[in-house]
Specification:
Blueprint: H1 18-23, E1 32-37, E2 40-45, H2 48-52
Antiparallel strand pairs: 1-2
Length: about 80
Amino acid sequence: MKIIALTPQPNVFITVPIETLVEAGIAPTDVIEIYAEDDKVIIQKVEPEDAESFVCDEDCVNCPFQIVDCAHEKAA
């Protein structure tokens, strides 16, 4: 599965050591969410039960998963 940003948004690429991800319980293939809170950038794994409740509305431009080979189905 290829994951790319479909919307033209300004982005900064930050490398995260794999050891840090492993310590946090995040695998390279996990779906993650990123947000800012209290002067910090938070990266956390999206739990499967949270992803399962996602219903595709076929609005690929604003899709939070931004998956290229989407079949417009519920994310798993």
